[in-house]
Amino acid sequence: MFKSRGDIVYKCTVRLLEDTEILECEFHPSYKGKYLLEHVCQQLNLTETDYFGLRYVDAGGQRHWLHMAKLILKQVKDASPILFSFRVKFYPPNPLLLKEDVTRFQIYLQLKRDLLHGRLYCTSNEAAMLGALIIQIELGDYDPNIHVGNYVTEMRLLLRQTEAIEARIQELHREPVEGTPGGSGGVKGMSTQEAERTFLKIACQLDTYGVDPHPVKDHRSNQLYLGINHSGILTFQGSRKTHHFKWNEVHKINFEGRMFIVHLNYPEKKHTVGFKCPNGPACRHVWCCAIEQMLFFTLASSSDACVYSGGGLFSWGTKFKYVGRTEREILERDGLLAPRDSQEEGGGKRKASSVPATPSTPMTGDFGYSSLPRSTHSAPLEESGGLAGGAEMCNGACLLAGPAVDIALAPQELRAQEKHVPCAAEYILRDSCSPSSSESGGGAGGAGGGGAGAAHDDWRPPPALHPPPRPFSLLRTFIPSFLFVWLSLALLALLVFETDWVLLRPLKRKPELLSLRHHYYAPLKEYLKRKVLEFF
């Protein structure tokens, strides 16, 4: 921190998606989070800024996303030095629809990082293909004069990078692309752009695409990991996906203390599922992440989207205001999605500021939080080419767990019928649940991995909406009443003792009021007068 022209300026460090790259930035105490993110994106020539965010770690080790509408200094007041990590915050369902190549490259860097930190689950074949594509992007076509020996070992691509996986990556790097003379499904001959697009095409269809796992426990104290992405809320146990709550099934989301609670609406009945977080701040962080992801991917307009939760008998609760555009607004702006009609069903015009009854508050009647399904957002992905076969039975070369399968479940039972993937090696979500060493210790933390997105075909606009009711709080009710009573008494005292109304003269002569004025009112008046004069 130093003074410049009478203004205090703060310095901070922003770690980019490649650990070797950092930005040194400055900001004034009056600057909000939006300024810093826009400055970083400007340095990277990024115009599609809505998908990105800045992450920081507080003094207690809890990760947070920098809020765009709040003062930077207020959010990181206890941090020294001030460190941020530039990360993908909202993984687009289909990154191939992004307009700018530089945006796709940043998504690629994030997914490459997710693969290295073990957040992007895939089969051994998919891991080898993704590794080969990274080699192709960074080293170009295989050249026997340059690429000698086990050159893949020198590059860290996967968390569990075995010799067998490295050998398969080298094999794919040597083999020509399928469709070319002698092509056998490798990557040789791909341009950097083609290899990058193929990498994104494969990665975005994996179950853990876009998921930042949070450690939680179910009602049986089983260790789970909670992931939130464009398709909904997912749970993982070990290397298996056990639940997938899609956004159009989520009725509301709230938290109470350490409990993160999801209320689900199904045609037959409603369910409530609770997850216990390690502590209160972690629970609030999970709730904020879930709210932001849901609003970004399901809300038609972001205007005045505000939610409440966490209110108890003796607490104020938590207010969270969503800032920024939604995915639908981005796609409409870029011409990838037709604008919605201004008239809703029944001829009623929907205000831009109307938001669905928020997922953290009670809703009216049969209203279900409406999601904008992935199929209506993004064009269908092309068939992913280049994968070497399906999921093979694992041997010692197996790196990651195979693709998880959605389970038809009764969500009130957190113990689902888990289907084991065809892999003997359990791939545990370790570093993704707490700040990685680089993010908490002055480096860049891994931001999240991925999730499956099952598309829904039909979407209907929600019915008439109402402002969300706030949860009841005794303090919130008592304090305004207490202040109102004392203010009324003060005004009444001024009226009696400072006015000369004829109607009040008999009342002012009463012994009780004379004593009250002499012993309390007059001394208090003199004390306040003296303090005011000293102040001015």
Give the integer mean of the pLDDT values.
75
Going by CATH, what is the homologous superfamily of the domain at 2-88? Phosphatidylinositol 3-kinase Catalytic Subunit, Chain A, domain 1
Measured distance between first and last alpha carbons: 33 Å
Sketch the major β-sheet.
Answer: 6 strands, mixed
For the secondary structure, the number of strands is 17
- Broad structural category: alpha+beta
CATH topology of the domain at 2-88: Ubiquitin-like (UB roll)
Rounded Rg? 29 Å
Number of helices: 13
**Which regions contain 5 or more consecutive residues with pLDDT less than 50?**
1-6, 342-434, 442-468
CATH architecture annotation of the domain at 2-88: Roll
Spell out the blueprint of helices and strands:
Elements lengths: L1 E3 L2 E9 L6 E6 L5 H11 L8 E6 L5 E3 L6 H4 L7 E6 L12 H16 L7 H16 L23 H12 L17 H12 L4 E2 L4 E4 L5 E7 L2 E6 L2 E7 L3 E7 L2 E7 L4 E7 L3 H19 L7 E4 L8 E4 L5 H7 L40 H4 L59 H4 L9 E2 L22 H25 L6 H4 L2 H25 L1
Parallel strand pairs: 2-6
Antiparallel strand pairs: 1-2, 2-3, 4-5, 4-6, 7-17, 8-9, 9-10, 10-11, 12-13, 13-14, 15-16
Helix pairs in contact: 3-6, 4-5, 4-6
